Structure formats: structure tokens, C-alpha cells
Amino acid sequence: MTRKRTRTTNRAKWTAESMKEALSAMTSGRRIRDVARSFGIPVSTLKDQYKSGQSHEASLGRNSTFSIDQAGKGTNQSYNHDG
After folding, report:
1. What is the C-alpha to C-alpha distance for residues 14 and 36, in angstroms, rounded to an integer?
2. Which of 7, 20, 38, 80 keeps 20 to 30 A from 46, CA to CA?
3. What's the distance, Cα to Cα, between the start and end of the chain in Å?
4. What is the domain class of 13-54 according to CATH?
5. The pTM is what?
6. Separation between Cα atoms, residue 19 and residue 17, nearest integer Å
7. Distance in angstroms (rounded) separating the CA atoms of residues 61 and 78
């Protein structure tokens, strides 16, 4: 059973919806710094997302090695160790 941990950082507090709204505000002609201030998204993050042409969800920490399906399949396997 997984535990629900409380968030201890203030990084990446923006949501995917606010990122999409911020990018659409930038394409409508608003300045990057004004958009960043009003949506609470760092300027560098807005620039990166705008240049890539895609809006990603905020991700913190390392990338996982296995997908959710692969991780679930690995727990039910037993290994035979012949010594």
C-alpha cells in the first residue's frame, strides 16, 4: 500500500491547465514576464515550453526505470536460485 506524502517543496506548483493558458496568453501577444507573474510560472520554464511547442506537466525527481505496467508485473515473479 502506498502512502500519500505531503508536499515539502514550492517548486513546480503550476498545473498543466495554467501552463496551457499561459502559453495561449503568450501567443496572443502578452509579454513573457507579465504572463509568468500572473500565472505563477517561472520565466525560464515558460520560455522552454514555448520554444518546444508542447506543454508538459510538471515533473520533479528522477525518471522511473519501469512503466506502471512493468512494475506491476515484476512483483508477482519469483526467482529460482539454484546454488
Report:
1. 11
2. 7
3. 33
4. mainly alpha
5. 0.55
6. 5
7. 30
